[in-house]
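Our preliminary data section would be incomplete without showing what the modeling component actually yields. Below, a chain of 273 amino acids is followed by its predicted structure, encoded as tokens that our downstream tools consume directly.
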Amino acid sequence: VLAPQPRLARPAVALPLTLAYLRKAVLRHRWSLTRHTAPGRRNPGIRRLSRWVKAQLAADPARLIPERQLIAKARELLPEFIGDRAPDGWRSMKERADAKRAAAPPVEAAVEQALADLLGRKPAARVRGLQRMAELAPHDLFDWCMMYLDDTAPEVRVAALHTMLRCDFADMRLVTPLADAEDRRVRGAAIAALVRHGGDEAAEWMRAGLTDPSPHVRLEAVQLLPQFDAQTHSDLFEFARYDPNPDVRHRAEQLIAGKGFPKAHYRTAPGRV
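Predicted structure:
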């Protein structure tokens, strides 16, 4: 009576000792090789692989041959067919993540990438994450901005404040203290956000921005001039047109072109010395 063949459970594989099995079940299946691209039965490498399998089972018929060991031996004996290619199903975590991202809907994949950037260790990654969120414009965009107002990196706080300019609604109670920040970048971005979402106090915040000692802050503020009526708030436009800094004046002239103001000839700004 013939002894029953042992049933081998994963991750080992049951290996009939035929060349056809090695060609089809192992090589063609695991590496997606076709009948024409897989090594033939007379290939020296496939014959050596067959003899190796027979030797392993002859030494211990009940032995399990782990699939990884078989794959390593096949790669060694058949380098021209396999090389460094990983068998199908043996993909790295990065490859799996890339494949999952590629299969996901574009918006979902973009959100996942933005979240990954927001959790990044480097400030540049978190800035990129906020920029991605601004492009996606989710309904909770302002909440994401608020989470990064106390970031350790000033450039991240500035990015969060700039992103608030894209929000339809924003609560400025936590932003107001930043209008007195020592860092001119944070102070300028905070004043810009307060002008954008300041409501009835927007004009006062604009005036504070246009009279700030730092040209950087004044240039941030002047970008919001178009949201004001030139007749009602003509004093703000005059401040911008006669700013001591040429970059601020030039930007102001660009933004108010066609609003009825004559070309400014800078000497001394109204109300300034």
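The chain has a mean pLDDT of 76. The chain has 13 helices and no strands. Preliminary results of this kind motivate Aim 1 of the renewal.
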